[in-house]
Amino acid sequence: MNIALKAPPIPDCNVPAYSPSGQECALFESAWTRQLPLLLKGPTGCGKTRFVAHMAAKLGLPLSTVSCHDDLAAADLTGRYLLKGGDTVWVDGPLTRAVREGGICYLDEIVEARKDVAVVLHPLTDDRRVLPLERTGELLEAPPGFMLVVSYNPGYQNLLKTLKPSTRQRFVAIEFDFLPRDREIAVVSEESGLAESRVAPLVDLAHRLRSLKGHDLEEGVSTRLIVYCASLVDSGVTLRDAVLATMIEPLTDEPDVKAALIEIADAVIRQG
Ligand SMILES: Nc1ncnc2c1ncn2[C@@H]1O[C@H](COP(=O)(O)OP(=O)(O)OP(=O)(O)O)[C@@H](O)[C@H]1O
User: Fold this and answer.
1) Domain that residue 134 falls in
2) Which residues does the UniProt record annotate as the domain ATPase dynein-related AAA (predicted)?
3) More exposed terminus of the chain, fewer Cβ within 10 Å: N or C?
């Protein structure tokens, strides 16, 4: 069923800034209009969370974000009975709240969650669009505005932590990656306040370090870390100290790898 959904006009100043890398904004809006759930894949710190926040604000929808972890169970999303002043009261979890409100529920790093989470997501992510609450006996029908968005980082996957095809194939999926050089420079400059000419060597260094992913490093430098670095430099921290604290220390604890990264950083800083 296609119910015509229309986003209310939202003043731009209330929308978190997001620089698109392709057609993802149009795709998100179409998926929301057609009541389809969305899966975002991509490395840490490349803009997935910002994208969802941007789209939720643009569409004028409430957003509940949950960072999944290996202890997160279905009841953490749906809700549970709690003792309150001698009474036992049902308290909705973030997923139930989003279904009742007709908003967006964003489950970050969904592969980390416990297996029983998939059981509650399945009837919500096919054409039934229902959330059964066993404990209260309710069967909530998701209103047209409700949308489920999940994300994961394929780089962290291992055999024990993957999405089953029966779960993956319920979602429209978008692959994310870091922005091209000039766009990433513009975003980091915008986010940190540091001039683009001073951000450029930081982005070039990030590119060098990203090329080591899979060899010496599990993950490359995220856009988030470049923003941290540029923000520290903008606050007066020296370039080398800022690079060390944001683009090298968070990446590795291995002394040999660290020494190699510092050598690369020093070379890029000298050129910049
Ligand atoms: N396309 C973009 N437009 C605007 N800002 C961006 C963009 N990409 C990254 N950023 C910046 O990078 C930061 C980190 O991005 P974000 O938190 O969205 O990453 P993520 O992909 O959700 O990471 P994780 O998987 O670790 O949750 C943002 O707070 C923002 O400053």
Assistant:
1) 12-175
2) 37-171
3) N
